[in-house]
Design a protein that fits this description.
The complex is a heterodimer of chains A (285) and B (338). Chain A is mostly helical. Chain A contains twelve helices and no strands. Classes of the chains: A mainly alpha (285), B alpha/beta (338).
Chain lengths: 285, 338
């Protein structure tokens, strides 16, 4: 054996000669470390999500450019017609478009999971002796950062355009907090679809089919009082409506206890139902 | 030093698994002794990958049972996971991350603290000749480097049983040799390796026992020597200096060996089967005899080689059909597993 390390001056193919001595050293087993706690394993997986953002920063396009376009487009498209002028409309509309944008971004959790599985890296994760949901929890925790980023981008654009939240900093933080909690819970819907559906494209397709009606048939854009009764019934049951009402209230410095309660209840339901379904699929594959 | 494990690493009885209409495993029985390389040999779609996925706890069998070091792969999956690792046919590392990041990530997941995980990653990268490439994304690695980082990831916690699913498919000969050296080192250390391959010579060089898999069943099992002698034949490939002499050479060979002789498309090439049931001599003795006859007849041979039976020939002998790939196993599996 000439050498156990690669020698290369540049990026030319390295000539690697495996050395049995060098390999024997790394094979010598130390005592096995104890199994990491669920929290530590989940955090390690969210570190992976951060590393992916570092290496593929283009993926932040979804959480920056897309929300900016949404705010600008709808404020100036609907503002004059619905509220007399865009600025007054923005005061009503900004919390709603923030919710819409962030909830729409949650679908990338499913798309990302589907791609990961397609590539085979989840095969390795699934053969590790760690707390089973850790890979998925870590992934979603990483995505939560993207949600926060999107919310902050939208808030900034809103402030520049003239949005003035009466709730002040605390109200705004509370609103974003509610939105992030709900989005974390809602992401489990997409992990389930990411596991069940065959391709990235079909995950996108199903997500759009769910997200468009869910976000548009709500109180995001207009006050539901002018809608026909049957539509009001749907809008009032829609979790997005409750979320928007509670975020709006928080940012306006008031509170809407019933909407808040509904938002939390829906969040729990999403985690329990879709979290369970996701883990069932994850284990059964 | 080495962590020797004795007895059986894997015992599987009647494993079945279907994906829709496709029967990937039709009742596989395996007994894999600990401490050696065991080869699963078969064409694409034979069920090798499915078998590995069941044994590595990635897939549940429809029927039958399997134990890894005495632990049931379904009921005690966690105990199995603590003792095995898998290097899949496709990259089982994150291609967006660098080689070093992948190893630190896995080290952390296996319970190492960050400094220890970093140190372990450095050691492994050095031993696998990847120090230079440590900071580069895996997607920019060559095929051989990718395999190495994948295997390095698998031995982070030096497993008792390592699954290598077609580790050399698509690699150039040098990278293939490197992987072989690594496999030998891993086994010398005491880890059991279950290796799937489509190449008889690979199974022959590495494995101490081989199971030949076809249509989801084990159709033959034994040491490489036993398998080859059950097939019994190899081929002598000759290239003559003068194409004019080929008819004469054909006649001489047929007379000397009493076997069928095939004329190749190349006008100087000729192939004869040797070592078959018809002769008391082994293949090399027959080949030597053939060469002698040719030189006595004044025929000049420029190039001569004695080939082992190919996988195709093993398959022909065992199944009466050549080793044709079934429909792409992995694709069916991925679709059906959703």
């Amino acid at each position: 054996m000439s050498s156990d390390t690669a020698t290369s001056a540049d990026r030319a193919p390295t000539v690697y000669v495996p050395s049995s001595e060098a390999l024997a050293t790394v094979l010598a087993p130390g005592a096995r470390p104890p199994r990491p706690s669920p929290l530590s394993a989940s955090l390690t997986f969210s570190w992976r999500a951060l590393l992916k953002i570092k290496h593929v920063p283009e993926q932040l396009f979804d959480v920056t450019a897309f929300p900016i376009i949404m705010v600008l487009m709808f404020t100036y498209l609907f503002g004059g017609a619905l509220a007399g002028n865009p600025r007054d409309y923005l005061q009503f509309f900004l919390p709603g478009i923030m919710v819409t944008s962030v909830v729409m971004i949650t679908m990338y959790t499913g798309v990302g999971l589907n791609t990961d599985i397609e590539k085979g890296v989840f095969d390795r994760f699934r053969t590790l002796p760690v707390w089973r949901p850790a890979a998925l929890v870590g992934m979603i925790v990483g995505d939560v950062l993207r949600y926060v980023l999107a919310a902050v981008v939208i808030l900034t654009v809103g402030l520049v355009l003239g949005f003035r939240p009466d709730g002040g900093l605390l109200g705004v933080l509370a609103g974003i907090g509610l939105l992030v909690v709900f989005s974390f819970a809602f992401s489990w819907v997409w992990t389930f679809f990411g596991l069940v559906l065959r391709s990235e494209k079909s995950v996108m397709g199903v997500s759009m089919m769910v997200l468009f009606p869910l976000t548009f048939l709500s109180n995001v854009f207009v006050n539901p009082s002018t809608m026909p009764g049957w539509l009001q019934a749907f809008v009032n049951a829609n979790p997005i409506t409750h979320l928007v009402s509670s975020v709006r209230a928080a940012m306006a410095g008031t509170s809407d206890a019933s909407s808040m309660m509904w938002t939390m209840a829906w969040s729990v339901v999403f985690v329990v139902v879709f979290g369970t379904l996701t883990m069932y699929r994850y284990n059964r594959r | 030093m080495s962590r020797r494990t004795t007895g059986l690493a894997i015992e599987a009885e009647g494993l079945t698994r279907s994906f829709g209409e496709t029967r990937a495993l039709a009742g596989i029985d395996l007994q894999v002794p600990a401490g050696a390389v065991y080869g699963l040999l078969g064409p694409n779609g034979a069920g090798k990958t499915t078998a590995v996925r069941v044994l590595a706890t990635l897939l549940r069998p429809d029927g039958g049972r399997a134990r890894v070091f005495g632990h049931d792969v379904v009921g005690e999956a966690d105990a199995v996971r603590a003792r095995v690792s898998l290097t899949g046919q496709y990259a089982s590392v994150d291609e967006d991350l660098t080689g070093a990041e992948n190893l630190v990530l896995l080290g952390r997941l296996l319970g190492l603290r960050k400094p220890a995980a970093r140190e372990r990653a450095e050691q492994l990268l050095a031993a696998f000749g990847l120090t230079e490439a440590a900071g580069r994304q895996v997607k920019k690695y060559s095929g051989g480097m990718r395999r190495r980082v994948d295997i390095a990831a698998s031995i982070l916690n030096t497993p008792d049983l390592l699954f290598l699913d077609e580790p050399t498919t698509g690699l150039d000969p040098r990278s293939r040799n490197q992987v072989w050296e690594i496999v030998r080192a891993v086994v010398a250390h005491g880890t059991t390796v279950l290796l799937t391959t489509q190449y008889l010579d690979e199974a022959d060089k590495l494995a101490s026992r081989i199971a030949v898999v076809d249509h989801g069943r084990v159709i033959a099992e034994g040491t490489p020597g036993e398998l080859k002698s059950s097939v019994g034949s190899g081929s002598v490939h000759l290239r003559l200096r003068d194409p004019e002499q080929r008819p004469e050479a054909e006649r001489v060979l047929r007379a000397a060996l009493g076997v069928s002789v095939q004329l190749e498309a190349d006008p100087v090439a000729i192939t004869a089967r040797v070592g078959g049931d018809g002769s008391d001599l082994d293949a090399s003795a027959q080949a030597a005899q053939a060469l002698g006859e040719l030189s006595r007849a004044g025929i000049v041979v420029d190039d001569f080689s004695l080939g082992q039976p190919s996988l195709d020939e093993v398959f022909l002998a065992l199944t009466d059909h050549p080793a044709v790939p079934a429909e792409a196993e992995r694709d069916d599996e991925l679709e059906a597993a959703r």
